[in-house]
Amino acid sequence: MRALPVRRIATSVLCASLLLGTAGPVIAAESDSPHGSSQEAARAPVPGADKLLAQAKTLGDAGGVLTPVTDLLTAVLKADAGKLTPEQATKLAAPVKDAITKASAAAPKAPELPETPAAPETPALPQAPALPKALSDDDRAAAADPKADALKALQTAVDTLVKAATSGDVKAVTGAVPTVLTGLVNLVAATLLGGGLPAPDLAGLPALPKAPELPAAGLPQAPQLPAAGLPQAPALS
User: Fold this and answer.
1) Do 15 and 55 fall within a single domain?
2) Which of 100, 138, 187, 228 could form a disulfide with 150 if both were Cys (CB 3.0 to 4.6 A apart)?
3) pLDDT in tens, 26-78
């Protein structure tokens, strides 16, 4: 009577072995099927993703500056007579400084310009006039990087606004707020023009002014001379 359960167990084990032996190739085939390759293809990056990510990061850096500055402006304009306590001013100004510092560090460095070569000395001739002084590294970087210049000017405008708001000088606040707004606009313009972003194509935007047409170059026409001719001979009688 005990042999029957043992036989049943052996039969079940044999069936399970047969099923696993049959299913093994199927599982291996599924792992090698095109479905796996399609998943790998789905993980492939978008063509030109590096350039697009750089453009998105450029806009993100600008947006990271806009938000804390507009928060400061909103708080000053909503405050009584535009006055903030030192604690409020510090709390609002700290994120602005951090965002501007982060955006300045993320901005690409301008390429170094070659230094102006010195003029060779010519013997026995009058000394050549001195060449203009070469720009310093800071001057070249500022001239070639409008975004860095805009960030620096914006930080100066924010410092002026914070000082005016904590002093309670309404007149100073009124003059400082437009400067901060202009600094934000300059930052956005510098980001759009110098960040390699696509040109706007929104319908209704004004077109850029066209260059004036120059008159056609040419020499004045010579005056027409009267037709030359010999006088007719008198008729013979």
Assistant:
1) no
2) 187
3) 445 455 555 555 555 556 678 888 888 888 888 888 889 999 999 999 999 99
